[in-house]
Design brief:
There is one protein chain. With about 450 residues, this protein is of the alpha+beta class. The chain has two domains: about 70 residues; about 325 residues, Porin (Beta Barrel), CATH 2.40.160. The protein has seven helices and 19 strands. The strands form two sheets. A twelve-stranded antiparallel β-barrel has the order 1-2-3-6-7-8-9-12-13-16-17-18. Strand 17 and strand 18 form a beta hairpin. Helix 3 packs parallel to helix 5. Keywords: Coiled coil, Signal. This is Transporter. It comes from Neoroseomonas eburnea.
Length: about 450
């Protein structure tokens, strides 16, 4: 930092003048100088003393500024994992030197917080470096389709995120009912009824997120569902033609509410732990509300029990607590999660495929356990990707207190996510899930556009 308004030559001149005045005897001063000249010299001497004092004060202020900046640089180095700078050696002063050499103060690092860090500039403080690191980590985690749904992504304090979403699902199941017997493995004597079900679902959803603090977020998701299915059943009579029906359904889905809280700061190479809570309502149309085929319908003997229309919800409330773990190790971010799914049972009216009246039944859908893990990378300041796996085990359901055989589910999928940050506020996220088990959808595509606003 330059010392403006101070002429370095003046202190030396003041010293010479003062020395000259002290070396001359009083008589010489009285004889060789008038009273006015003595007064002028005295004023010049006092003025030089004041300037020397001002220069000393400026040197002191500069030294304090240098010390403050040095502490900030050390904190920044520690935040990014770089070694602390070595102490600056003190240069020896020449003999007889009584004036400190003014060193220009280092220019302050560029400000701009996380944005400056992403553009390759150094954040101005350790706090801003930590904020940039957190934002980069959250951007990587947001690419994973599972974390975006169950929790683990935090919105900064005072920010609102709107996330329009399009979700496409494709599923195919083939069920064979054997009416016969087998003597040799693989060879069946008798008839086989085959039912093939191809389902497509498109979900348009809007998710709202609000950051109460940098560690606490609340969110809500509002889906609209359109489903279509093609069901083909082949009767046991080989002379009969296959029967095909195509039920559809559309309407509002099950609205969800959630919250996420970061438990720890994740310092000293510790992973961060995020507690999540998600609550799913039953606002969608229940499977027990849609009409079904009965034996009284045409071809009812083969279609009985199948839905004429498709539901848009599950028909039950569920509560889903869980925890997400994220560990950043440059250049990767490892993540994982564990959650419990509590499906709350209730009394429902079960329709009779024989055409009789509905029967009130205490139905308790099975609870479940879900886990996921993966790794994400920031390819550059705008593009991130993630690879992961998700597994959900759903326990058997029960009706009237009795377990329903074969109602348990085993759902697994490989996940791939890609994110592109178009600007400071807008990102484009694409997720792909490929089913790995019989109960899982064959494929799911998820396209989200998070748009962030600061209040």
């Amino acid at each position: 930092m330059a010392t403006t308004g101070i002429r370095p030559g003046w202190p030396g001149a003041a010293t010479l003048i003062a020395g000259a005045l002290m070396l001359q005897p009083p008589g010489a001063l009285a004889q060789g100088a008038s009273a006015d000249e003595l007064r002028q010299l005295r004023e010049m001497f006092e003025r030089q003393q004041r300037q020397i004092q001002e220069q000393a004060n400026q040197l002191s202020r500069q030294q304090r500024l240098i010390d403050t900046q040095a502490r900030e640089i050390d904190g920044l180095r520690q935040a990014v994992g770089a070694p602390r700078r070595p102490p600056r050696p003190t240069a020896a002063r020449p003999a007889g030197e009584d004036q400190a050499v003014v060193q220009p103060a280092p220019a302050p690092p560029p400000t701009g917080g996380p944005a400056a860090a992403r553009d390759g500039q150094r954040p101005s403080t350790a706090a801003e470096a930590e904020a940039a690191r957190r934002q980069e980590q959250q951007r990587v985690l947001a690419t994973d389709p599972t974390l975006a749904r169950v929790g683990g992504i935090l919105t900064p304090r005072g920010s609102i995120s709107l996330e329009p979403e399009i979700n496409y699902l494709y599923s195919q199941n083939t069920v064979a009912a054997v009416n016969g017997f087998s003597i040799i493995p693989g060879i069946t004597f008798g008839t086989v009824d085959i039912r093939r079900d191809i389902e497509r679902a498109t979900v348009a959803a809007l998710t709202l997120r609000y950051g109460i603090t940098d560690r606490l977020e609340v969110n809500a998701r509002f889906p609209y569902v359109y489903r279509s299915s093609t069901i083909q059943t082949a009767p046991a009579d080989i002379t009969a033609s296959p029967i095909t029906v195509g039920p559809t359904g559309s309407g509002i889905g099950d609205i969800e509410f959630g919250a996420s809280y970061q438990i720890n700061a994740g310092q000293q190479d510790w992973p961060i732990f995020i507690a999540n809570l998600r609550v799913k309502s039953d606002t969608g149309r229940s499977p027990f509300e849609v009409p079904i085929y009965t034996v009284n319908d045409p071809q009812g003997a083969f279609l009985r029990g199948l839905a004429r229309e498709l539901p848009t919800g599950t028909g039950f409330w569920s509560v889903e607590p869980g925890v997400t773990v994220a560990w950043a190790t440059d250049p990767a971010v490892f993540f994982g999660g564990l959650r419990y799914i509590w499906n709350i049972g209730r009394t429902v009216d079960v329709q009779d495929p024989a055409g009789g009246p509905s029967t009130p039944t205490d139905l308790d859908p099975g609870d479940g356990i879900g886990m996921n893990f993966g790794v994400g990378f920031a390819l550059n300041e705008r593009t991130s990707l993630s690879l992961g796996y998700e597994q959900v085990w759903v326990f058997s359901s029960s009706a009237g207190g009795s377990r329903i055989a074969g109602s348990g589910l085993d759902i697994g999928s490989f996940n791939f996510g890609l994110s592109y940050r178009a600007s400071e506020r807008v990102s484009f996220n694409l997720g792909v899930q490929i089913g790995t088990t019989e109960s899982a959808p064959a494929a799911r595509l998820i396209f989200r556009v998070p748009i962030r606003f600061s209040l």
